[in-house]
Give the backbone structure.
Amino acid sequence: MRFQHSLLIAALASATGTAWAGVTADEAKQLGSTLTATGAEKAGNKDGTIPAYSGGLTKAPAEFKAGEGLRPDPFAADKPLFSVDGKSMDKYADKLTEGTKALMKKYPDYRIDVYKSNRSVAYPKWVADNTAKCAVSAKTTNAGRSMEGCHAGLPFPIPKTGYEVMWNHLVRFQGVAYNVKYRNWNVDASGRPSVSTEGSIVQEYPYWDAEKAASGTYYKQRISYTGPARRAGEAMMIIDPLDYADKDRRAWTYLPGQRRTKVAPDFAHDTPNPGTGGTSTFDDVFLFLGSMDRFDFKLVGKKEMLVPYNTYRMAYNSTKDDLLKPKFLNPDIVRWEQHRVWVVEATLREGKRHIYSKRTFYIDEDSWTIVASDQYDARGQLFRAGFAYQTPSYETPAPWADMHGLYDLIAGSYSLSGYTAETGGMRPGKAAKESDWSPDALAGAGIR
């Protein structure tokens, strides 16, 4: 009853555009009681297909070597419980995203293999402690576009609006800093894979760094491109603020042919992302990244869905030849599980422009990560289906789901971003010096 009441409040808030300032102290008492310390429902579901939360995965497999970027699969011995394809999809229709159903209709041989659900997401104790404080102090401002009153904790563990859920995703805890060598792949309609970009990426979340509480920045990304040959030596940097009304995103690019760093104000919203060869937008990164000023975000509620989850084999123990098949990723390698997700519907605001007229986001209740998305074009036709492939880093512990991809349902192609299995995986790192985030430093990082 309490949960249904919260959804009613959420619907009213979304409809009126109200900005909420945290929750009451009494509501916050649910954290660590009926809810986990970060806001998920502690209990499993009625039929047992979603287990109760028991703390997540905090112990690394015996074969894991500290400091290595490739993580062994703690669920490698599991076998699929069942599969879903175009012939059986009607039986599971209420648990499939529209994008998943569209893929099953478009490709008769597409399927998902569903495994036992494991609530593997875990957090350090200080994250839980700070989240309890943020629950009663955080608030959205600037019509949901900005956030304040919280640092180093999940701001809205008991969300009442779509904007609050999206802020949880934007500032989600994945560690304070990490380094990745990656490749982005595109697979065209003929089934031919090609590298759109490859390089080294440094990512930081100053929001989670106690020493940077006053910076007003929640996310930093710097990429040094090493391939393909035409892009080797280029570099890019973006910095995202908590208050988009005050600062907005700052972005720069370094082009070795010009030997200078240029401000890149267009590296946002629906500008085609060169990192994926233009097959996605800048705000498709991680299925959504950046300002929320183009859309109205409505909290629909929470559902039990079949989504990619605990995809360790895909992320760390696959090869591109085995994974990147014509039309879609190899179903033998992608693990799916049943989990509860928050559903947020984003509708293009009147007077705003974007290639998408509507987007639906599915946000995992344990990690606050967008694990799936549906994007609709200006005609209202389903255009792209997105999925993020989550593999909690058990040694931190922290969720991690930077690897993500989009299926173009019209062109018959797809992309996969952040693939690291053949380039060494992901390594947690230390926050860089502030001087390392200057335009001059970007030029130095991009020189061939």
Remarks:
- Confidence is low (pLDDT under 50) at residues 1-18.
